[in-house]
Each structure stands twice: as structure tokens, then as C-alpha cells.
Design brief:
- There is one protein chain.
- By secondary structure, this protein is an alpha/beta fold.
- It has 4 domains: about 110 residues, Rossmann fold; about 70 residues, Orthogonal Bundle (Helicase, Ruva Protein, domain 3); about 90 residues, Zinc Finger, Delta Prime, domain 3 (Up-down Bundle), CATH 1.20.272.10; about 60 residues, DNA polymerase III clamp loader subunits, C-terminal domain (post-AAA+ oligomerization domain-like).
- Helix 2 links the parallel strand 2 and strand 3.
Length: about 375
């Protein structure tokens, strides 16, 4: 199997649990430091173990995507014959990084970043093991600054406990100051209200085309330990919600920024987030997409089930033609300009206009080009009137 997920989501732990519960021995390798020689030696030991003791072996390979093609190919015969049960762990998309032949022999399991409440369970277990306690504010600080990574949460806790016991006088109570020191100041321990207030200020500053304010709130949240993924996602949403068709490249830029942040992480990802923030703040703004989506949603919810006009229905199945489905549909590419006037909305909504374009940025140019295409000189294909 292949375990795919972000760091600190329990891939290695899960592999160990599976091997132990099945009564298998475990051979663990890291693709970062291991080569062909290490893989061959592990396979030999697994074969000897099977022959001498009848015990099967789980071969766990961490960061399996770091193996090159020849190293991955070496695993195929052993997995094919059952010499070992392979469990590979990766933080990268295995469809791009793992051989197709190896993927076809594996079951893919995707692990997600841990939620704050899950991290809180782990932190409390760690406290019980160490005989320590924690304030509610400090617990929230750990879970909110760990970015879904159990390893980060437990390491932070362990360091904070050591710092608490180094106080004068020593204490077993971990407070937010200990957590902040353990995180080297990279702590997001604001209350829930503060969190939402700051992200609201950030979005409204970008929407309001104020790059200075937008950058200020961005850095404030980054310095407090806010998840860069969260900030990148908000920029992607804003690119459609507030920039929209005024500059369609806004969504492309925001998506590229989100992918880059996921790829390079922090601290370099700060530069990418700043790049996207300033660019989106400087772009013209239009919410015509947001308004159109809202108008259509209200119409769909109010109208209930609506039949598709017969000429728009699919006709590539038995009996459709006899019902007249697809009959009368004009293929636009058969007409001059690639357009022909015909009905697309249901009968009950004919004449309804959901999309109301603005005159901002590139949206005006895009709509003018669209209107020009819809008004051809050909009298057989006049197009809709310009409003």
C-alpha cells in the first residue's frame, strides 16, 4: 500500500501498527538515505526470515517518491511474489512520483492533516505521560500553530514542558508563554474572534485595493503562526469572488501561488503569498460572478425540478430519437462565427438575465468581444440584440 499525506499525519505510525497487529517483522528504510544495496539487503533478510521462521515482513519505505525508477523497479518482483508486504509513505502525489507498475500493485490510502480537536487529544495524552498540565490558552496555541502536524504539536509540547520545569520555581503547568518560547515566537494563540477578525481585515483590504494594508494583515497572521495553506486558499477564493472577470488572470495567479506555497512551504512561501496579495490588491475588482451565481442559485432553489428542453437533451442512447430528444438542436460550429441563436434556458426562465457584467477592468473588453460575436451581419444568423 501507499500512504499519502502531509507530514505529521501518522504514516509511519500507521505502518508500524499494521505490521505489529499482523505479527509481521518490519524492515524500515528511508528513500532519502537508502540505495539499491540497502533494498537488496532488506529483501534478503525478509527472505531468510520467511524461510527459517515462517514470518512475513513488512518493508516500510519512507518518502518512497525519492527512489528513482530503477530503485522502484527493484521492489516489483518482491511485492509480486509476496516476499514482502510493501508499505510506502509519501508527502508527494504518488500518481506523479511513483511508478505506474508499483501503483498498480498497491492500494492508495490518503491521510489528511489532523484537525485541531485531534491534535488536542494527542497533546492531552502527552501531558498524561509526562505528568504535566496545560492552560486552555496554551492548548489552543499548540493546536492552532501546529498546522495539522502531530509531530510538531508533540515536539512543541515536549519543549514547553521542559521550559516550564526550568522556571524558578519549577512548575508542571504549561502556559502560553512556554508554548510561545518553544515555538520561537511563531505562535498563533489569538482567540477565535481575533483569528476571524484578522482574516476579515486581510480580505477586505485586498478587496479594497489597498496593498499596504493587505500586506500588513498578511504578515501579522504569518508572524502569529497562521497556516500558509489557509491564507493561500483565501486568496484563491477572493480571486473569483472579488476580482472575477475584471482580470481573469487573478484566479490563475492565486492558484499558482497556492500550489507554490504547498510545494516550497515556509519561510520562502511568504514571498509567494506577498506576491499574490499585492497583485490581487492592485487588480481591478468586479463581483459580477458572485452576483450571477447568487441569482442563479436563488432561481434554482425557488423553481424546483425543471425539465431540460427536448432539443438540448442527450440523444446517444436507444429510444431517445423516437422521443424527439436532440431533434432541432443546431450545432454552433456549423454556422458563421461559431454561433447560432437558439434556446438554452428552460421555458419558464426564457428572457431571464442572471449575469450582469460590470464596466471594470478586462470585463468590459471581454463582454464587448462577446457581444460583437453575438451580432453578426449574416441575416440568417443575426444574433441577439445588444442591450
Amino acid at each position: 500500500m501507499i500512504l499519502w499525506g502531509p507530514a505529521g499525519t501518522g504514516k509511519t505510525t500507521l505502518a508500524r501498527i499494521l505490521a505489529t497487529s499482523a505479527g509481521y517483522a518490519t524492515e524500515s528504510l528511508s528513500a532519502v538515505t537508502s540505495g539499491v544495496k540497502d533494498v537488496r539487503e532488506a529483501l534478503v533478510r525478509a527472505n531468510e526470515r520467511l524461510g527459517e521462521h515462517g514470518q512475513r515482513t513488512v518493508l516500510f519505505i519512507d518518502e518512497v517518491h525519492r527512489f528513482n525508477k530503477s530503485q522502484q523497479d527493484l521492489l516489483l518482483p518482491a511485492t509480486e511474489t509476496g516476499q514482502v508486504v510493501l508499505i510506502g509513505a509519501t508527502t508527494e502525489n504518488p500518481y506523479f512520483e511513483v511508478n505506474a507498475a508499483l501503483m498498480s500493485r498497491s492500494t492508495l490510502w490518503r491521510l489528511r492533516s489532523l484537525a485541531a480537536e485531534d491534535l488536542a487529544v494527542l497533546v492531552r495524552r502527552g501531558l498524561a505521560l509526562r505528568g504535566a498540565s496545560i492552560t486552555d490558552e496554551a492548548l489552543e496555541a499548540i493546536t492552532s500553530s501546529a498546522d495539522g502536524d502531530a509531530r510538531v504539536a508533540l515536539t512543541t509540547l515536549d519543549t514547553a514542558i521542559i521550559l516550564a520545569r526550568s522556571d524558578e520555581p519549577p512548575t508542571n503547568l504549561v502556559d502560553v508563554a512556554h508554548v510561545a518560547q518553544a515555538r520561537d515566537g511563531r505562535l498563533y494563540h489569538q482567540s477565535r474572534d481575533t483569528h476571524y477578525d484578522q482574516i476579515s481585515a486581510f480580505i477586505k483590504s485586498v478587496r479594497g485595493s489597498d496593498p499596504d494594508a493587505a500586506l500588513y494583515w498578511l504578515v501579522t497572521m504569518l508572524e502569529s503562526g497562521e497556516s500558509p495553506r489557509f491564507l493561500a486558499r483565501r486568496l484563491v477564493i477572493l480571486a473569483s469572488e472579488d476580482v472575477g472577470l475584471a482580470d481573469p488572470m487573478g484566479l490563475v495567479l492565486a492558484d499558482a501561488a497556492a500550489r507554490t506555497v504547498e510545494f516550497i512551504g515556509l519561510p520562502e512561501g511568504r514571498l509567494t503569498l506577498a506576491h499574490a496579495t499585492i497583485a490581487l490588491a492592485l487588480m481591478p475588482k468586479s463581483n459580477s460572478v458572485t452576483r450571477a451565481l447568487g441569482a442563479v442559485t436563488r432561481a434554482v432553489q425557488a423553481g424546483g425540478p425543471i425539465e431540460v428542453p427536448d432539443h438540448l437533451r442527450g440523444s446517444n442512447y436507444r429510444g431517445a430519437e423516437e422521443q424527439g430528444f436532440g431533434t432541432g438542436y443546431d450545432y454552433p460550429h456549423d454556422f458563421a462565427g461559431g454561433w447560432v441563436a437558439q434556446q438554452y434556458l428552460p421555458d419558464s426562465l426564457l428572457g431571464t438575465q442572471f449575469f450582469e457584467p460590470s464596466d471594470y477592468g478586462r470585463e468590459q473588453e471581454i463582454v464587448e468581444q462577446w457581444r460583437a460575436r453575438m451580432n453578426l451581419d449574416d441575416q440568417d444568423n443575426p444574433g441577439p440584440p445588444v442591450e
